[in-house]
Amino acid sequence: ILGSGISQRTGNTKFTLLVSIAIFLFIIFQGWYHIFLNISRFWFIAVILLGGFWAVLHRMAPASGGGGNVSRGMKNAMGDFVRRKMLDIITKEEEDLRKKIEDRFKKLEGILDTIKKAPPGSEERAAAIMEFRRMCTDLEACIKELSDKGKIGDVKVLNYTRDYWDRYGKLTEKFRKMAE
Question: pLDDT by residue (tens digit) across 88-135?
């Protein structure tokens, strides 16, 4: 302990070794060894607790100039890599949901064309109306799921869901006019 400071100033490692051995022998011959042995059982836990306490204090405090990554807060300190990976996973799920929603919109538009072309009162028209209602329920569930993911992720997803709800409203309005 004492020797490390002396060796850094003088550059003499042999002197450091000699002082370290002298301190060790002093501790043993004075009978303090068993005290240090009992204390050393808990040093690992104490180091972890103190290190965690230090990290929380220093990483949650606002940056006062300099400091690099340490001063950027808990968001960067606690797993920037994990956060990016989670966003990638969420983004891929969002892309899949957007593709699924676009597919549902295309199917709904095709069903509307079928309803428009089918004569009123025909079985083809009735089946198309039932299919339209089923697809609407599925589409609503997909849009709601995407909006839930947007609450976790970013504002861009919420903009997509708003656009999807607008398109959905226009399609259902068109359906109501045709069904009358």
Answer: 666 777 788 889 989 999 998 998 888 888 888 889 888 988 998 999
Looking at the structure, tell me whether residues 145 and 64 fall in a common domain.
Answer: no
* C-alpha to C-alpha distances, 95 to 69, 89, 99, 135, nearest whole angstrom: 32, 10, 6, 20
- Full domain range(s) for residue 67: 2-77
Domain count, the chain: 2
Q: How many CB atoms lie within 10 A of CB 108?
A: 22
Task: Report pLDDT digits (tens) over 35-90.
Answer: 777 777 777 788 888 888 888 777 665 555 544 555 455 555 556 656 666 766 66
State which of 47, 77, 107 marks the end of a domain.
77
CA–CA separation, 144 and 101 (whole Å): 11
Q: Is the dihedral of CA 99, 161, 148, 76 positive or negative?
A: positive
Q: Residue 106 is encoded by which pair of tokens? A: 């295309």
Task: Kindly state whether residues 55 and 14 are assigned to the same domain.
Answer: yes
